[in-house]
Specification:
Blueprint (H helix, E strand, L loop, with lengths): L1 H19 L2 E5 L4 E9 L3 E6 L3 E6 L3 E5 L4 E4 L5 E9 L2 E5 L5 E5 L6 E3 H11 L7 E12 L5 E13 L3 E14 L9 E16 L4 E12 L4 E17 L3 E18 L8 E19 L4 E11 L7 E12 L4 E12 L10 E14 L1
Antiparallel strand pairs: 1-2, 1-5, 2-3, 3-4, 6-7, 6-10, 7-8, 8-9, 11-12, 11-22, 12-13, 13-14, 14-15, 15-16, 16-17, 17-18, 18-19, 19-20, 20-21, 21-22
Length: 364
């Protein structure tokens, strides 16, 4: 009997302790609700209860509020204070351990976080460089043998690391196509060999304004372009910055270096050209999620030559990815590179890459 009595006391004490440490909201109609406060703002109190799940309560209906868990509250002076909270009149009172009681008008509440949410927020402010990456690898392959003898391979990589204060973007696209010796005896030849790469770093100055530095690289064997490097620094603006849609515009100055090297042919001698050009960079980038499974991206950059404004380059990259599974999808992409005056005779100004294939996504 003594054991059963002691066990009953223990259970009652545990239940009482659970009740004592629950957050409490008293309503003006006399009802009392207990649970865990999950969110506070200038309009509502969100309380998670065992019986009714999460419920939103208008401040106009609240008579008293008590939280026994630490809450992190942003004051109108942009400072963050922490402690248990209660309601006094039209003020939320934060009972801090070091600064005493701090009153924050309910009408001016902007950010209130739980201890777990605050830890996640602080980690988001200063993440490791290896964390918060998202991206995908794209692969497409085609092979024909018999009367036809062709090999086509395209691969791509896109990586993005976005935090509250900055963003890193990486991209790589490569296409290779080769025609083998045909049944008629036509010789083997490469019909496409191009590599495109890009990197960009954005640093937010305000909610809308950001600074950026970028590098764009192009290798095109059939244009005899060994490497074109475009380095840009400038400013940008977030016109739209939502989880489902983003639209950014940029403007800046660039330095362009190009190296062309052609082999001698029966009609033309060997030719090597190096060009160093100052220029302007203007552009925009767009992303929209049509659904949880389909995302479309597009980026266009225009590079006029400052030494001769009649000469310019542009780059266009767009893609659509549809998820088949969480990590697997199908993608179609389009890349276009244009230069007004390629220096190697007989080469064309424009190169277009259209590819499709599997999309393997990753996060870290």
């Amino acid at each position: 009997m003594k054991f059963l009595y002691a066990l009953a006391l223990l259970l009652i004490s545990a239940f009482a302790a659970t009740s004592v440490f629950a957050d409490t909201v008293a309503l003006k109609n006399g009802d009392h609700l207990t649970g865990t406060i999950t969110a506070l703002d200038s309009k509502d109190v969100t309380l998670k209860t065992d019986a009714a799940g999460e419920i939103k309560i208008k401040w106009s209906s609240v008579q008293e509020l008590t939280s026994d868990q630490p809450m992190y509250v942003a004051t109108p002076e942009k400072q963050t204070v922490s402690g248990t909270v209660t309601l006094e009149g039209a003020d939320l009172v934060v009972h801090t351990a070091t600064a005493g009681d701090i009153h924050v008008p309910v009408a001016q509440l902007t950010v209130v976080r739980s201890e777990q949410e605050q830890q996640a927020y602080e980690k988001k402010l200063h993440p490791s460089l290896l964390n918060d990456w998202a991206g995908a690898v794209n692969v497409g392959f085609a092979l024909a043998r018999g009367n036809s003898n062709t090999t086509d391979l395209n691969v791509g990589f896109a990586g993005d690391r976005k935090t509250l204060s900055d963003e890193i973007k990486l991209a790589l696209t490569s296409v290779y196509s080769r025609t083998g010796v045909s049944t008629s005896g036509a010789p083997s030849r490469v019909t496409a060999s191009e590599i495109l790469g890009a990197a960009e770093y954005d640093k937010n100055v305000s909610k809308r304004l950001f600074l950026f530095a970028s590098a764009d690289f192009t290798h095109d064997a059939l244009q005899d372009l060994v490497l074109r490097s475009i380095y840009t620094g400038g400013v940008g603006w977030h016109f739209i910055n939502r989880s489902t849609t983003t639209l950014d515009a940029i403007v800046g100055l660039n330095y362009t270096r190009e190296t062309y090297d052609s082999s001698a042919t029966a009609l033309t001698p060997a030719l090597k050209v190096n060009r160093n050009l100052p220029g302007i960079t203007t552009g925009e980038s767009f992303m929209h999620k049509f659904s949880s499974n389909t995302v479309v991206t597009e980026a266009f950059n225009f590079y006029p030559d400052l030494s001769d404004l009649s000469q310019y380059r542009f780059s266009l990259d767009s893609a659509m990815v549809t998820k088949i599974k969480e990590w697997l999808g199908w993608q179609a992409s389009l890349s276009d590179r244009y230069v007004t005056n390629p220096p190697i005779p007989g080469t064309k100004s424009n190169d277009l890459i259209l590819s499709t294939g599997l999309n393997i996504s990753f996060t870290h």
